[in-house]
Amino acid sequence: MNGRTYTALIIDDDATTRSAIKLMLVKLKFKVDEAADGIEGLHQIRKRNYDLVFLDIRMPRMDGEQVIKVLKKRNEFCNILLVSGYLTKERVVRFAQLGVKGFLTKPIEIDKFYAEVNKVCPTNMQN
Length: 127
Fold this sequence. Notes:
- By secondary structure, the chain is of the alpha/beta class.
- It contains 5 helices and 5 strands, in the order βαβαβαβαβα.
- It has helices at 15-27, 38-47, 64-74, 89-97, 110-120; strands spanning 7-11, 31-35, 52-56, 80-84, 102-105.
- Strand 4, helix 4 and strand 5 (102-105) form a beta-alpha-beta unit.
- Helix 2 (38-47) runs parallel beside helix 3 (64-74).
- The radius of gyration is 13 Å and the shape is globular.
- The termini are close together.
- The mean pLDDT is 91.
């Protein structure tokens, strides 16, 4: 561990997915907040700067792509990992162009999860 405490926000309408991600992040000593949709997530981001945001694509009220566009319009930078059961090559390319840092497919593979998190927030690597 590098001694730093990271913060993360999980924006996903599926409570089971939020719980699973939170459990893995807590093991890495992250402080974790949750939001059930994009609107709630944007409110959380306004209140706090997060090191990492897990963002689902398909959600009611406001989807992941809309959240990213609002953040860009507000000029608010976030390290976003997209979490979806609906990732295609075209979506990965489009979201990467929008600044998304990484991608996780549902159901989430644990090894891939930790690799993606470590790319953005090194938790068990030497600095």
